[in-house]
Automatic annotation (TrEMBL):
Organism from which the protein derives: Mesorhizobium amorphae CCNWGS0123
GO biological process entries: regulation of intracellular pH; sodium ion import across plasma membrane
Transmembrane parts of this sequence: 83-106, 112-134, 181-201, 213-232, 238-257, 269-291, 311-332, 353-379, 391-411
Protein name: Na+/H+ antiporter
One of the record's GO molecular function terms: sodium:proton antiporter activity
Length: 546
């Protein structure tokens, strides 16, 4: 009962945070972490012990799968060079640079444990990045690089974290063995994601052959894909995170949606949107719930002189160190890209100073870091405590908060003016696609109408075809390059939507009246309300695009 009440309380505050974020105007993850910390700060507040393995299984696969499924594959493929450079190269650079810096700043932390903390701090958080980075002020190219990096560097960072922990426990480290294990974890993780997707597709095909299977069963298969991929990879000793990301990246291009009915497709999209919001919010609230206990247990090694100043200063210095290492790597990568373009006689697209700084500040840490560091063993094989465990947990939590805070405050100022005003390239591309699709639909309808035989049926078909074609022509006019034509078409579209919304409200009122009077029962009313809501959702989508 206590667990159920706790879950309901967390879900309730997730919903509240969705409303509060419009009032306080801070990034949603920061607000949710603050809510969690406020709930846990009193002595009798909410307290929960996180099982890192369970935490990773429940939250990370579905969230990364959802982010990967909606990520722009074309842009990520075009930017694969800088993305892999950050997702792999920067991870190793951070482990070495940050590890030595941490050992120098806090000598009580053994070097191998410092490398472990550096490894778990190297992945950026995909959820936090997408929540903090404003797509209206940050260049699209930088956004795509940050998204791709955050999807892939979790695997490399956590694999290296496990190697560092193993080295701390055994006292030995083999570069050759670690390299082979890393390659196996990556290759097997990708394979597990592909296999999970194939299994899901075959299952949906089987359900279609059976016939009459509820749409909810098909939706459940889609929901299980990231968990199957993650568990399969972890069982094989590979990267479960990379498996979930791979499955998500390949979902849209695999054709798996062909095996879903219309109702199942709509339910899947709606459910994933809701789950992403709920899981994101719950994840950051749980993160906030851990902070008061971690802060109360400030290790004495960090507070020998000043109880508050020294730990805060240490966390701030380490966060700035991470940002500095990231800036240096991006800068060197820009130089290398410029030189490669010069030798290859092609045009280079280097980042400017402010874009490099924005990319450095936007590399925030989050749930993966906390879950990884909490999974540190409590004791060594001989029974002695794991060295500096409390210190690195405190520092990891502090860096998470500090990186989120710095990004939230500094990124809008750094990025201001980086994007020139004008039509969004994505909006222009969508407009061209709408015109092309509408022209194809008109051509097909005209062919069908002209092939009809003579008579009343043919006349009726032509009349219906003219009506449908008129709607497509209005869509084309609304996307016309000429401002005057577009303005006229949009005004006509606005009036049409206004009348349609009024008609929908009248329909809904009439159905409610019939339900109250007993003319129809609840099942009939629910079916009618569902149809009305679907129509309204489609119209609202049209309204937003205008």
């Amino acid at each position: 009962m206590h667990v159920a009440i706790f879950i309901l309380v967390v879900l309730g505050f997730v919903a509240i945070s969705g409303a509060l974020v419009r009032l306080v105007r801070v990034p949603l993850p920061v607000l949710q972490i603050a809510i969690g910390a406020a709930l846990a700060w009193p002595a009798r507040g909410l307290h929960v012990e996180i099982d890192p393995e369970l935490f990773l299984l429940v939250f990370i696969p579905p969230l990364l799968f959802s982010d990967a499924a909606t990520a722009p594959k074309r842009e990520l493929l075009a930017l694969r060079g800088p993305i892999l450079d950050l997702a792999i190269g920067l991870v190793f650079f951070t482990i070495v640079g940050f590890g030595y810096a941490l050992h120098w700043l806090v000598p009580s932390i053994p070097l191998v444990v410092a490398f472990a903390l550096a490894a778990v701090l190297s992945p950026t958080d995909a959820v936090a990045v997408s929540s903090i980075v404003d797509r209206n002020v940050v260049p699209a190219r930088l956004i795509h690089i940050l998204e791709g990096e955050s999807l892939l560097n979790d695997a490399s960072g956590l694999v290296m974290f496990r190697f560092a922990v193993a080295a701390a426990l055994t006292g030995s480290f083999s570069l050759g063995a670690a390299s082979l294990s890393f390659l196996y974890a990556v290759a097997a993780g990708i394979l597990a994601g592909v296999v999970a997707l194939i299994v899901a597709a075959k299952t949906l095909q089987l359900l279609n052959r059976i016939g009459g299977v509820p749409a909810e069963a098909q939706v459940l298969v889609m929901i299980l894909i990231p968990f199957i991929a993650y568990l399969g990879a972890e069982h094989a000793g590979a990267s479960g995170i990379l498996a979930a990301v791979t499955a998500g990246m390949l979902t849209s291009g695999s054709g798996i949606f062909r095996h879903l009915g219309v109702s199942a497709r709509m339910q899947t999209m709606s459910l994933w949107t809701t789950l992403s919001f709920v899981f994101n919010g719950a994840l950051f609230i749980l993160l906030g719930l851990q902070l008061p206990d971690i802060i109360r247990k400030v290790p004495p090694e960090l507070s020998s002189r000043h109880w508050l100043v020294e730990p805060v200063a240490t966390v701030l210095i380490l966060t700035l160190c991470l940002i500095g290492l990231r800036f240096l790597w991006i800068w060197v990568g820009d130089i290398a890209q410029r030189l490669a373009a010069r030798f290859g006689k092609r045009k280079a697209e280097p980042f400017g100073l402010r874009v490099r700084l924005a990319g450095s500040v936007a590399g925030v840490r989050g749930a993966i870091t906390l879950a990884g560091i909490l999974s540190l063993p409590l004791a060594m094989p001989d029974g002695s405590p794991f060295p500096a465990r409390d210190i690195v947990i405190f520092l990891a939590a502090g860096v998470i908060i500090c990186s989120l805070t710095i990004a939230s405050l500094a990124l809008p100022k750094i990025a201001r003016g980086l994007v020139e005003p004008g039509e969004d390239p994505g909006a222009a591309e969508e407009r061209r696609a709408r015109v092309g699709a509408a022209n194809a639909a008109i051509a097909r309808i005209e062919i069908i109408a002209n092939d009809a035989s003579e008579g009343e049926a043919a006349d009726a078909r032509l009349a219906v075809a003219d009506s449908i074609v008129a709607g497509y022509r209005r869509r084309i006019a609304a996307s016309d390059e000429a401002d005057e034509a577009r303005a006229e078409a949009r005004e006509a579209g606005r009036l049409e939507l206004e009348l349609r919304f009024a008609a929908i409200e009248a329909e809904r009122t009439a159905v409610r009246a019939m339900l109250r009077s007993g003319e129809i029962n609840d099942h009939t009313a629910q079916a009618l309300f569902a149809e009305i809501t679907l129509t309204e959702a489609l119209l609202k989508g049209r309204q937003r695009r205008k």
